[in-house]
Design goal:
382 residues, alpha/beta, Rossmann fold, six-stranded parallel beta sheet, 14 helices
Length: 382
């Protein structure tokens, strides 16, 4: 198949999943065309992979350049010139509406292909519910040949807030266990924790929904009981507040802000516990990648997190904002070597349910089904 993929090229879960999916499909012999404004962070060379940049011109007339319009034009160009079979857009805003508009233009040119929309979280639970976006998001989702969501919770939230007229297929995020696996980085660990301290980690885009200050508060309580270090991986608008909180609590010497990192798997390999206190996660891909490296997870019980983090098995779940409970659970995991090893092994084993080899064929099957059904409809019209 010739597949177009539209996504955000950032470190966020939607961009990571879209890129990993495209790479996996290319390795299986499919021709994959990425269409976005910047090369995705995890995209690397493969003979079956093509990258098309959405270049938005700037004019003094526009305070906000019309990205959606330029994306639509680029989609028309890429689809028509490369004879794509299907388009897969990740994150509804504005990709689904741009895809719909592009398809209307292509129909006039005699080229007609289906598009699939995958929902990832805030495109539904936060941004999409804004009254200014909701009519367009609802319409473009319903015009999609198929809709997928990354968790049962996100599916339920979508039906709750939007008038969706078709089935939503739940296809969970997956992890590349060939990349995300524990590797021997003991020399790194000794540099960061020379006295055998436990290492905690957090990975996110440092937005408010991630509640990064809760990570600092949890660590501060753990540190009082167990000698520990904290690695804060990522960047975003809440980083200055988190750094200021470290100074206020007097824990700066034991915390490192590492910024955005591409080799997250190497950092997770020296980590003992992953902390994700988000207000909402549609899935929690960062937690799954940590678990694939044998790292248990302390997280909130919101959104899709209970679907991957098993209470008392791969880690613990707490209510949003319950810092005391998260700290207590973290101390419980970290205070006993045998218990920590059991949690690590449980986390590693659980990720086998989300291996790439198990999930990618589900997308392939959906593509083939959608293309076949779309072809039948076109023949019926003729």
């Amino acid at each position: 198949m010739k597949i177009g993929i539209v996504c955000y090229p950032t470190f966020g879960g939607s961009g990571v999943l879209a890129t990993e999916l495209g790479m996996a499909l290319s390795e299986k012999g499919h021709e994959v065309h990425f269409i976005t404004y910047q090369q995705p962070v995890r995209l690397h060379f493969h003979p079956n992979v093509y990258y098309h940049e959405v270049s938005v011109p700037t004019y003094p007339l526009f305070d906000f350049p019309p990205y959606e319009t330029v994306l639509t034009g680029t989609l028309v160009d890429v689809i028509s010139n490369n004879n794509l079979d299907i388009l897969h857009v990740h994150y509804a805003i504005p990709h689904a509406s741009a895809a719909y508009f592009a398809m209307q233009i292509l129909k006039k040119q005699g080229k007609d292909i289906p598009f699939i929309t995958t929902l990832h979280g805030t495109d539904i639970t936060l941004v999409g519910r804004d009254p200014k976006y909701m009519p367009v998001v609802t319409f473009s989702m319903n015009e999609s040949a198929a809709i997928t969501a990354v968790s049962d919770n996100l599916k339920e939230e979508t039906y709750r807030w939007f008038k969706i007229e078709k089935d939503i297929h739940v296809i969970p995020n997956f992890v590349d266990t060939m990349r995300f696996q524990h590797s021997d980085k003991e020399h790194f660990k000794k540099m960061l924790a020379p006295n055998g301290e436990r290492i905690l980690a957090h990975v996110s885009n440092f937005r408010k929904v991630k509640r990064v200050e809760d990570v600092i508060h949890v660590f501060e309580q753990v540190r009082k009981v167990i000698p520990s270090k904290l690695l804060m991986i990522g960047d975003g608008p809440e980083r200055p507040n988190a750094e200021e909180l470290c100074r206020t609590l007097g824990v700066c010497n034991d915390i490192r802000f590492l910024g955005k990192q591409e080799q997250v798997d190497e950092i997770l390999s020296i980590t003992d516990l992953f902390v994700l206190p988000s207000e909402y996660e549609s899935f929690g891909l960062a937690a799954l990648e940590a678990m694939a490296c044998g790292v248990p997870v302390i997280s909130t019980n919101t959104g899709g997190l209970p679907e991957i983090n098993v209470q008392g098995v791969t880690g613990y779940l707490s209510d949003v904002g319950d810092i005391a409970d998260m700290a207590k659970n973290a101390i419980n995991v970290l205070s006993d070597d045998d218990r920590l090893e059991t949690f690590k092994e449980n986390a590693l084993q659980h990720t086998k349910n989300f291996e790439r080899k198990n999930i990618v064929p589900i997308y392939e099957q959906l593509y083939q089904q959608v293309i076949a059904e779309y072809s039948k409809k076109k023949l019926a019209i003729l």
